[in-house]
Structure formats: structure tokens, C-alpha cells
Amino acid sequence: MSDLQDLYQEVILDHGRHPRNYRVIPEANADAEGLNPLCGDHYHVYVKLDGDRIADVSFQGAGCAISKASASLMTSAMKGKTLAEAEELFTRFHKMVVEGDRTQAERLGKLAVLKGVCDFPTRVKCASLVWHTLHSALHGEHKPVSTE
Amino acid sequence: MSEQVAGAVEEARGLEPFDVARVRREFPILAQRVHGKPLVYLDSGATAQKPQRVIDAVSRFYEHDNANVHRGVYALAERATAQYERARERVARFLGAADPKEIVFVRGATEALNLVAQSYGRANVGPGDEILVTAMEHHSNIVPWQMLAEVKGASLKVAPVDDRGVLDLDELERLIGPRTRIVALTHVSNALGTVNPVRRVAEMAHARGAAVVVDGAQAVPHLQVNVAALGCDFYVFSGHKVFGPTGIGALYGRASRLEAMPPWQGGGDMILSVTFERTLYNRIPYKFEAGTPDAAGAVGLGAALDWLGTLDRAGVRAHEEDLVAYGAERLSSVPGLQLVGTAPEKVAVFSFVLDGVHPHDVGTILDREGVAVRAGHHCAQPLMQRFGVPATVRASLALYNTRDEIDALVQGLGRVREMFR
Q1: Contact B326/A at CB under 8 A
Q2: Which residue among A14, B65, B80, B339 has the highest number of C-beta atoms inside a 10 angstrom radius?
Q3: Element (DSSP H or E) covering residue B246
Q4: Could you give the number of structural domains in chain A?
Q5: Is the dihedral of CA B75, B98, B177, B208 positive or negative?
Q6: pLDDT (0 to 100) of residue B7
Q7: Structural domain containing residue A28
Q8: Over the stretch B73-86, which tens digit does the pLDDT of each residue have?
Q9: Best-predicted range by mean pLDDT (B71-75, B181-185, B264-268)
Q10: B390 touches chain A (CB under 8 A)
Q11: Residue B230 CB contacts under 8 Å (≥ 6 apart), including other chains
């Protein structure tokens, strides 16, 4: 049972229940949609860029506790970051969750609570969906992101 | 004695009262533990498990009889062809078709629906015509019709369902108009378990000259189907949902319809003669079976239907009805659980949502309890929208499931509640 508790840590459940930055940014100058056609998760990410700095970032949508917590933690971590810093976070998060490199966790702050996800291969896409979506928003790709 | 009669006699002789414990022992996969807990497999709506007889039939075919069908003059080819055609006869008998030539082997229900849309549909649907489906269709009984409608300038109409997941027959009848060419509906809803009154819909459609296409994928594992009694023009199902192998399924088409239809895919086996100037097509059903078919799959499907034929179907029905009633009662007692799909006529499919917990999370936690369910939109997104939910948890049962397994599901849901307190 321990690995299940590793996945559903209190921080994750809290962010899933009370997601931070769960709103639309009316003056957003970048946004993107992400969906997982297999489970129906569907998110919209909004970004307000000030030069090359992420002045504000938010999301809305529907999905499981893992995807929502990931969105909540990601938006919290990304606020105030430069595009280069954001890119580094993308890479580290991807290494931790998708490739299972747990050593990344110590450099990821609060995002480290998502490290248990890599033990649940069917749930990795839940955690990574909003990250792909933000990436798409920042790179001005005007097509909804899909996990498939 | 014809094979058909011989089979019927065998069926009448072999009946012993249905005993779920004995039936379970025929499914080797069910005896395992998952995450240290006994496997509770509640996803038969996605794919059913296979009895040893089916697994053996497929192995035996490859070990002793494998050859390409309809092509060789040697002993193996004759045996392989005979077995493949025997499987076709078995499917015809299973569905109550008048003649085995009315059975076309396909990869599954999805391919069968695409075949009907692309062959019958292209020949019979024109600009301004209408195709009627229901709000509870699987994507495979929506998208092929949309593709056809787009090419032909036709339109898709949708018969609604009520809050219990029951088809609104009055509205359906009203929607069948002079331009309706095809009425396509599911016999049993994959996401809700609702059993539709196909016979009445067929009468309504035929009164206005529309052809009736029935998706039987979820019906054949539970109901005894007779296409003559249903009065439909086409009936499709997948082998893997009725305890057979994946990759094989069948299309039943009334002979007069199939004969009038153009071929769908071109290739070997579907022709009588080919020159660069002109090709003559084979007779039905071969006209629709281009390329080397999944002969081993067909043999496995035949074995699955033979196996079903040895069961006391009245006993199976009673057992499944008990699971429907017991499951509904037990799940209704779970705090915060809402069943989606409560039709009075339904099979043992329980779709539900749990207050404050996403179905995907429910699925992961249940998995750790050994309980396998489906979480998602069940390839029926329009239906999910109708009920205002992005997804549901679905426990879909088969004849090998037990009351104890429903108890394990309910206990697992208690565990979900603990985690998400």
C-alpha cells in the first residue's frame, strides 16, 4: 500500500482539492489547450508574459487529482520564472516523472511530491499533460496538445 | 445429419445447471493475484477473458492445421478452410441467420460498422439524406456515419435518451423521416448497460424504408440474439467480447442487402477473375473478405460460441440478473456514489461517479485492491456530455463474476474514500 500513499500524498490531495491559480487570466498573451483523449482530462493554461518573464500563469479544466495537482504545483512554480528557467524546469520534471530519475526531485522544490507518479506508468500522462500544455502555450503552438 | 442440427443436438444434451464456480475454473487468467490480492476482473465490457477451450482451439489450429484458407489443394489447406467455414456456420447459428453466407468475418464490430457505412452507405445515402443514431452510441457507431455524411452531404440525427439512460422511442420515431436511409443503434449500451428495444426500432425504421444497423458488441455476451426475430438488416459484434480471441468479429447482413452492395476493400479472395480491364467479384460473403483472413481467430471464435452453447443459458441469464440486482443494491449503499444508467432493462454494467474523486483516481486505487475497472469516457463522449460528467468508473461484469466480487468492489470503494477523506 505504501506506493499508493507515495502517489496520493497529502500535498497532492490538497492541491487536487483546492487547486492554486485556478482561474482565467483575462489579459493573457499566451494560452493553450491540453487533452487526454483516453481519459477525458481537459485543461486550458493561460500565461501573461512580461518580456521573457512569466508574470502570471493559471489554468482551468477538469481531470483527476494527479493532473490537477500537477497543474496547481506547476503554475505556482512557474510564476516569475524566465523562459530559460521554465525550460530547465520542464526538462527536470520530465526526467523525474517520465524517465523516473528521482535525483531530480531535490532540485524541483515542492514539485518533488510528484516523483511517485513514475511508479504508475498509466498515470504518467496525467502528471505531464499540463506541462506539455504550458510548453505549447509558451512556444505559440496553436493546436490543442494531446497525450496521444 | 447437417452440422447445424448436430450442433443443436449437442447443445440440448450437454446442459448442466449453471455453476459459476465451475465456469470460473475454465478461465485460467482469473486464478491470479494482482498486487497481492485476488484478481477481480470487472472490465469484460472492454474485453472478456477466454476459457481454456478457446485458447486451446487457437493453439491447436496453429499446431496442426494452419494453412491459408481457400487457396491450397493439400490436406492442411483443406482442414484450415473447413474449420474456417465451420466457424462461419457456428456464427450464423449463434445469431439465427438464415444462411452462413450472410456472415462476413471482420476484425471486429468497428470494422463491420465501417464496412456497412462505406459499402451500403455509399451506395444508398445521398445529399440531403439522413442517418439516425442514438445518444448512447459508442464512437464506432457515430464516426463512420459522420464520415459518410460528410462525403455524401447527408446529415446525422440523434435520438435522445432520458435521465435513466433509456432511449426515447417517441422522439426516435419522430426523427425517422422520409429522408432517413439508415437507423444505426446499439443493442446494449457499453457505458450504461441499457438494453434497447431493437425489434420495435426496426419496425419503425422499416415502416419508413430505412435500413437498420445494430451494434451487438455488448449484447452477445449477455443476451441470446436472433437477427430474424430482431428484424434488423445488419448486426455486428466482436469476438473478443464474447470470450473469443481479439482481431476477429462478424458482420451479419441480410443476403439481399449484401448481394446488392458493392465490395469494400479490394484484394485476394474477394474476386472471381481479374484482368487489367475488368474484375469480377466473388459471391457473398467472400466479396467482403479481401486478403488472408484471421482464420485462427475465426476458429477461436467458433470455439467460444461452442463453449457458450454448452452452458445452461437460462441459468446464465438468472445468474447475470442476480448480479444486476445485487450490484445496483450494493453500489447504491456507497455514500456519495451516483449510478449513471439505471434503465429497467439492463445488463450487468455499472457506470458511476463518486463525489469529489475523479474516476481515474478511483481506478488506480481499486487496481491496488486487485479490482480491474475502466475509468474514462468509454468511447462515448456525447453520452458523457448528456449526463454532464467528463468520465465515469465502469464495472462491467460477465457470467464468470460473482457477488463476492461485487463486495470486493464496494470494499475497494471504501478504501478510495479513506484515501480521499
Answers
A1: no
A2: B80
A3: none
A4: 1
A5: positive
A6: 47
A7: 2-139
A8: 899 999 999 999 99
A9: B181-185
A10: yes
A11: B187, B198, B199, B202, B214
Same domain for B273 and B367, yes or no, is: no
pLDDT tens profile A120-131: 988 999 999 999
Decide if B38 touches A, using CB distance below 8 A: no
Nearest C-alpha of chain A: how many angstroms from B101? Answer: 37
Among B43, B361, B392, the residue to mutate for chain A (most A Cβ within 10 A) = B361
Per the structure, the complete domain to which residue B213 belongs is given by: 62-309
Q: What is the CATH number of the domain that holds B341?
A: 3.90.1150.10
The nearest alpha carbon in chain B to A120 belongs to B364
From CA B216, how far away is CA B235, in angstroms rounded? 6
Residue A129 to chain B, least CA–CA distance (Å): 14
In a domain, A75, yes or no: yes
Residue B84 in any domain: the answer is yes
CB-facing half-sphere around the CA of B372: CA atoms within 13 A: 20
Domain with residue A78: its CATH number is 3.90.1010.10
Last residue of some domain: B250, B282, B309? B309
**CA pair distance B157, B139, nearest whole angstrom:** 15
Contact check, Cβ <8 Å, B384/A40: yes
Q: Å from B375 to nearest chain A CA?
A: 7
